[in-house]
Amino acid sequence: MSTFLPSSRLARLSDVTPADEPPRSSSTRILVGSTVALLSVLQTACFQGDDRDRHASAVDDYLATPFIDPNVAFAEPRRALGPPDGRTVALGVGAFIVLRFFRDIPDGPGVDLRVYEVGDDGAEARVAVSEDGDAFIEFARPASGTTTTYDLEEAGIPAARFVRVRGIDDAGEEPGFDLDSVEALR
């Protein structure tokens, strides 16, 4: 059996081998234990709760604000992933981030997307959406303030999987728009 998960999460060999079958070799036991362990991990990682599905799950592209030290915490693009937690990536003039969602964000009635920024320091950013990660459609209204919502109907697409946020000013202590999270509302 595998040692990286509690034994209570793994099936015993007797649970998966009928009693009338001959005992299996140790390599078969390892394979069965590993397969059950992998399925347990996948179930936990992929199928539990829609909270993970509601927020960006990967950074597809990133260009940091040109004049900031790349070693400062707010230059780390992964800080924009997951639910809002107060950890931000700063997007000043010339900076952008492309975030990918685990699933499509469908266009439905009303708002479909929410962008979170920490602080209300007057910084703004342009938000664009894409179905394929190549062709982006930018919303006319910039993101500003602590939250900004968007309706995909404004972009004219039935669904989006990618969101690009581009800094358009250098306002604030951490220069530019302090992106905390992007959330799919459907």
Task: Describe this entry's structure for a reader.
The structure is a single chain. With 186 residues, the protein is of the alpha+beta class. The protein folds into 2 domains: 7-47, no CATH class; 51-184, Jelly Rolls, CATH 2.60.120. Helix content is 16%, strand content 31%. It has helices spanning 13-16, 26-47, 51-54; strands spanning 58-63, 89-91, 96-106, 113-117, 124-130, 137-138, 143-144, 147-150, 159-167, 177-184. Strand 5 and strand 6 form a beta hairpin. The radius of gyration is 22 Å and the shape is globular. Residues 1-21 and 27-49 have low confidence and may be disordered.
* Alpha carbon gyration radius: 22 Å
Q: Number of domains in the coordinates?
A: 2
Label the CATH architecture of the largest domain.
Sandwich
Give the overall shape, derived from the CA principal axes.
Answer: globular
CATH class annotation of the largest domain: Mainly Beta
Give structural attributes.
about 190 residues; alpha+beta; Jelly Rolls; 3 helices; 10 strands
In short:
This protein is about 15% helix and about 30% strand. By secondary structure, the chain is an alpha+beta fold. Strands 1, 3, 5, 6, 7 and 9 form a 6-stranded antiparallel β-sheet that branches. Strands 2-10-4-8 form a 4-stranded antiparallel β-sheet, with no helix packed on it.
Task: Please render the helix and strand layout as text.
Layout: H1 13-16, H2 26-47, H3 51-54, E1 58-63, E2 89-91, E3 96-106, E4 113-117, E5 124-130, E6 137-138, E7 143-144, E8 147-150, E9 159-167, E10 177-184
Antiparallel strand pairs: 1-3, 2-10, 3-9, 4-8, 4-10, 5-6, 5-7, 5-9
